Amino acid sequence: MQAAKYAQLLHNPKAGDGDHMKEDLVNAIVSCGFNCGYVSTKAQRWDRLKTKTTLAVVAGGDGTVRQVLKRLLRRKLLDKRPAIALFPAGTANNFAKTLGISASLPGLKRAITGWQIRKIDVGAIGNVPETNFFLEGMGYGLLPRLIREMKTVDLSKVKTTDEELALALNKLIEITQDYMPKRGLLTIDGVHYEDSYLLVEVLNIQSVGPNVVLAPKADPTDGKLHVALLKEVHREAFIQYLQQSHRPRSGKYPKVPWQTIEVKHSITMRCEHRLLHVDDELINLKKAQLVKVEIRKGIVDVIV
Q: Which residues span the domain enclosing 285?
């Protein structure tokens, strides 16, 4: 009799319903024909997967997904990289939403049993301290400012993820109203762009922050990135866009009031902004420096 395959559940215990969520997730994975190990992403050495692991199930939000992929991408070239299944249990879940991944146990079981692999691209970053890749996006201007300010917001009275998203969206509107644009110079696939920007975002997925769709056509499996450039002239239109429903139930996105550029090869950029975000991590640059981004195609296997 053939032994069951081995899965490792990597769980952020602060996401979802704690131990109850853990038990439900383990049972769902076992019901798909796997032996299942469990580890909290808050534990030491949580990323030391057994060599027999064929599936890593990541239960958490966007930050947890990045944390897991960051560790897996550090593994040696000859180390076997398991396929990844996602159970989105965070606040925004932007990565999972772009891929259409369900935040339900039946959805997780369908993904595992169906085993349809999608090869995920990442953005490789050059000349930035402390980091070398992004999964979702990176950029200057409004978004890193929002991330920084949300770290000081009192969330003790927030009861649901919808309330937290609404609070963050309102904070972004507030920041946008008086944010000062700064000069940026970009070269995208050999074409030069220079202006003063409120926001410069290089995106691998459609939405960032509180589910704000900046690149409706972005797909992390197509070997391309997208750049969103928001100028002063688009400030009021952007505020109106944020005030509207930015992910309508019809599935159709309103026309974005800023410039979006498809990237097939690489980007170099230098911006006067000193604060940079890479996914949900903030980096303070000492000076305006040249940053290079290239596409690394299909290096992570995600089942959907």
A: 123-297
Amino acid at 107: G
Instruction: Tell me, yes or no, whether 251 and 144 share the same domain.
Output: yes
232 shares a domain with 216 = yes
CATH number at residue 240: 2.60.200.40
Tens-place pLDDT, residues 262-300: 999 999 999 998 899 999 899 999 888 899 999 999 989
What do you get for the CA distance between the two ends of the chain, in Å?
Answer: 28
Q: What is the DSSP string of 143-207?
A: HHHHHHHHTTS--TT--SHHHHHHHHHHHHHHHHHHPPPEEEEEEETTEEEEEEEEEEEEESSSE
Q: Are residues 247 and 168 in the same domain?
A: yes
The whole-number pLDDT of residue 44 equals 85
- Do 85 and 195 fall within a single domain? no
What integer pLDDT is reported at residue 253 of this predicted model? 56
Question: pLDDT tens digit string along 176-192?
Answer: 999 999 999 999 999 99
Q: How far apart are CA 123 and CA 101, in angstroms?
A: 21
- Higher-pLDDT residue of 246 and 40 is 40
E-only strand ranges, the chain:
5-11, 34-40, 53-60, 83-88, 117-126, 133-134, 137-141, 182-188, 191-203, 207-208, 212-213, 225-231, 259-263, 266-271, 275-278, 281-284, 291-303
- Looking at the fold, whether 149 and 227 belong to one and the same domain comes out as yes
- Tokens 């309330």 locate to 163
- Residue 55 and residue 251: Cα distance in Å, rounded? 31
Residue 39 pairs in a beta bridge with 10
> How many domains, in total, are found in the chain?
2
Beta bridge partners of 196: 183
Question: Do 208 and 243 reside in the same domain of the chain?
Answer: yes
Q: Indicate whether 147 and 237 sit together in one domain.
A: yes
Q: How many residues does the chain have?
A: 304
Q: What is the pLDDT of residue 1?
A: 37
